[in-house]
């Protein structure tokens, strides 16, 4: 269902790998709401993913960019404005990767060049994206920038590994850059802290099935899906949230404020 919330708005969507990706669902919803955008992903993801299908479906062009590479980002931001015919109104950063997680390396046994790579891809890339947009003055006033994060930034989830630290860094960058983007350009910056979601990145976390089932039982409204996240992002890109900025916003069915639920208690009471 569309409400025309993004009619006339232009943007960039990072991170659509396949139809499970949160960025994929967001691109579909932004398209339904009348927004126009350029899709981008790492050059390697072009070969693995099905991004062409999404581009066709949404009438979008694709510009490959490694989000850790400033030259790629500069090219992306320039070309996107050319293609879309003006400055940008919204940007979604939906990027995460940890080699330690991927290779099953424990938090207490990090290989630090992997840790550094993960930090660059998952957190510093958010700064690089925003610095490129800021220096090129590529955002329209009252534009909106969103990145995706997870609650392991605040609380310990042992198998989330070094991604927890990357998310804490990402959220801090959102606040810090949000100050300057707000003051200097009237642009808002927020992070959405999303429930566990069955995507390529999500399922890479050890014990993901247990993790998502536990969160489902803890959350009064159940886990937020990728589509729920897409819908929330649409509201943040719309003019209905003009003065929401520098926030970490939970889209998690209530999980973050629950100590324990009756369902989880029941598993310890022998009456499940
Ligand atoms: N899935 C979950 O459980 C969950 C929960 C909370 C937050 N998130 C966050 O949501 C975001 C999107 O992840 P997803 O779950 O949709 O998984 P996904 O695997 O579909 O998306 C991750 C994307 O990051 C891209 N990427 C990796 N390295 C890159 C680079 N160097 N340059 C540009 N792009 C690069 C990948 O190609 C991929 O498209 C991530 O920030 C993730 O941490 C996911």
Summed up:
With 272 residues, the protein is an alpha/beta fold.
Account of the 3D structure:
It is an enzyme of class 1 (oxidoreductase). With 272 residues, this protein is an alpha/beta fold. It has a single domain, classed as Rossmann fold (3-Layer(aba) Sandwich). 46% of the residues lie in helices and 15% in strands. Helix 1 (22-32) links the parallel strand 1 and strand 2 (36-40). Helix 1 crosses helix 10 (226-237), helix 4 runs parallel beside helix 6 (112-135) and helix 6 (112-135) runs parallel beside helix 7. The model has no long low-confidence stretch (mean pLDDT 96). Nicotinamide-adenine-dinucleotide (NAD) binds next to helix 1, strand 5 and helix 8.
Order of helices and strands: EHEHHEHEHHEHEHHHEH
Number of domains: 1
Give a quick account of the main beta sheet: strands, pairing sense, barrel closure.
7 strands, parallel
CATH class: Alpha Beta
Across the major sheet, the strand order is: 3-2-1-4-5-6-7
Helix coverage percent of residues? 40-55%
Task: Let me know the average pLDDT.
Answer: 96
Instruction: Tell me the overall shape.
Output: globular
State the end-to-end distance: 39 Å
CATH topology: Rossmann fold
What percentage of the residues does DSSP assign to strands (E)?
Answer: 15-25%
